[in-house]
Write a structure and sequence with these properties.
Number of domains: 1
Bound molecules: protoporphyrin IX containing FE
Helix content: over 70%
Strand content: under 5%
Radius of gyration: 17 Å
Low-confidence stretches: none
Distance between the termini: 15 Å
Order of helices and strands: HHHH
CATH topology: Four Helix Bundle (Hemerythrin (Met), subunit A)
Length: 149
């Protein structure tokens, strides 16, 4: 298996871990915020695991970026859906989502009340997840599909 194929499968499979962890963190944050619950150790952990999953996806994606045949820099790049999507759109959209999750995690960590901790994660992670889903769908490979599956 080539490094490209290995990393594509890894990155493709990691998406489900990212989607699951971020979704669970969101549900628990909204429940904690609206239900006025304390900010527990398990809240802290699920938020941390969600953060680590997207940072791992960032590293794998960055390496993949230099290996993918769909990442091209020529006159045709922006005219063709696949090369434009993989060279520009996927990277930009996912980067914004990862930055929102990192800011949300970090602001929540520094917030002083349980309500503020839950609220920050609820809002930042929800916007980030929406972006991740929209960007995956824009690939044309489907939410659960892909070249590697
Ligand atoms: C290009 C690669 C990466 C960049 C640019 C990056 C960026 C960041 C930034 C800016 C923070 C600060 C958040 C804060 O203000 O507290 C952070 C925290 C963190 N990142 Fe990454 N990261 C990368 C890769 C990784 C990888 C590969 C992992 C683990 C597999 C990881 C795990 C973490 C953890 C555990 C934290 C801190 C959690 C805490 O403060 O409690 N990151 N990262
Ligand atoms: C939340 C973060 C991310 C998620 C959920 C995600 C998800 C995906 C998915 C589902 C695929 C398609 C896999 C397949 O066809 O089997 C993919 C491919 C890819 N991603 Fe990401 N990605 C993320 C972040 C990134 C980042 C930050 C970069 C670049 C810096 C990146 C670069 C790539 C590249 C180059 C491909 C391969 C396209 C190909 O050659 O077929 N990804 N990603």
């Amino acid at each position: 298996m080539s490094p490209y194929s290995f990393l594509l499968h890894l990155h493709s499979g990691l998406r489900y871990i990212v989607l699951l962890l971020v979704l669970v963190a969101i549900i628990r944050a909204w429940a904690g915020w609206l239900g006025k619950q304390p900010f527990s150790e398990s809240n802290r952990k699920i938020n941390l695991f969600a953060l680590i999953s997207v940072h791992t996806q960032l590293i794998v994606g960055l390496v993949l970026y230099f290996l993918s045949p769909f990442v091209q820099f020529n006159a045709e790049t922006m005219k063709t859906h696949d090369t434009r999507y993989w060279t520009v759109e996927h990277l930009t959209g996912m980067l914004i989502a990862i930055i929102l999750i990192t800011i949300g995690y970090s602001k929540s960590k520094r917030a002083s009340t349980p309500e503020a901790k839950h609220k920050t994660v609820a809002i930042f992670f929800t916007i980030a997840l929406a972006i991740v889903v929209v960007i995956i769908l824009a690939s044309g490979r489907g939410l659960a599909g892909g070249a590697a599956s």
